[in-house]
Design a protein that fits this description.
The protein has 13 helices and no strands. The chain has 287 residues and is mainly α. Helix 1 runs parallel beside helix 12 and helix 6 crosses helix 13. The protein is globular.
Length: 287
């Protein structure tokens, strides 16, 4: 297996795992989304600590924390990724997987827009057309829902701003995620201690307790395979794989969980797919 084949295997593994996340979080539907989020932060911090400790990289992490600007930026990104995780878990538990799928389809185009606003990156004609189509798709969603598609917009915006911070603060992803989880860990622990004090914490050694503890592995494993894929593939090639995750979630929502897909909602997805196709074709021609 050559380097490119290894990269493709890692990329497929990564985005498949992210795509089937709804199945995992559906199993925790009887646990509140915030409690699931708190466990996800706790167990991710423990696993990342072990990984960094045994690879002798903890000193590098503490060096990052000593730089005030980096620490503040990673605190902000930690809050953003926590919001993203929390809203995603809440939406899946409420049977709104289609909205999460739409959010992650929109995200790459949202990132392009932020790059133009904050990093002064020039928008290509294809990107401008794609963003205009996305605005139309959101308007269709507003008409269909009778309100803004908050779940989709919060997911795409929080992750796009998260990516923007990491674009400015260049730190290894594992190091950055560990710092983010450590900075948000006190809030997670306070919440879990509160639940324990009122007898609502899920600490039993049953299937639910196992799934909550396993949330750390679920969070970290795709990150590790993504990092491996990034070593072997060009960023542009890796970018094409990112649409696999929301596509899998879209199919799960319809065929496994029977979420309703009306004509207007389908029309909004078709518009998003068209905008993505324009961007992909433009990038393929450019390369």
């Amino acid at each position: 297996m050559n380097k490119e084949q290894k990269g493709i295997a890692f990329a497929l593994s990564t985005f498949f795992m992210w795509g089937v996340f709804p199945v995992y979080f559906k199993l925790l539907a009887d646990v509140g989304a915030i409690q699931v989020l708190a466990h996800r932060i706790l167990w991710s911090a423990i696993i990342l600590f072990a990984l960094l400790y045994f690879s002798s990289k903890l000193r590098q992490v503490f060096r990052l924390l000593s730089i005030k600007k980096v620490a503040l930026n990673l605190l902000a990104s930690g809050v953003l990724i926590s919001i993203n995780w929390g809203v995603y878990i809440w939406a899946v538990e409420r049977g709104q997987i289609l909205e999460t799928s739409l959010g992650y389809f929109i995200n790459p185009l949202f990132s392009i827009l932020l790059g133009a606003i904050f990093l002064k990156e020039r928008l290509s004609k294809a990107s401008k057309i794609s963003l205009f189509i996305v605005v139309i798709a959101i308007c269709v969603q507003i008409y269909d829902l009778g309100s803004l598609p908050f779940i989709s917009l919060i997911l795409s915006a929080s992750f796009a701003f998260y990516g923007l911070i990491h674009k400015k603060v260049r730190v290894p992803s594992t190091h950055g995620l560990f710092v983010e989880t450590m900075l948000t860990l006190p809030f997670a622990l306070v919440f879990l201690l509160y639940l324990w004090s009122v007898g609502e914490a899920r600490l039993d050694f049953d299937s639910t307790g196992f799934l909550l503890a396993f949330s750390g592995v679920v969070t970290i494993l795709p990150l590790l395979t993504f990092n491996s894929a990034a070593k072997y593939l060009r960023l542009s090639t890796l970018g094409f794989f990112q649409y696999l995750s929301p596509s899998i979630s879209f199919l799960l929502a319809i065929f496994l969980y029977n979420e309703p897909l009306g004509m207007l909602k389908l029309a909004s997805f078709v518009l998003i797919w068209a905008s993505l196709a324009i961007n992909i074709i433009y990038n393929l021609k450019k390369h």
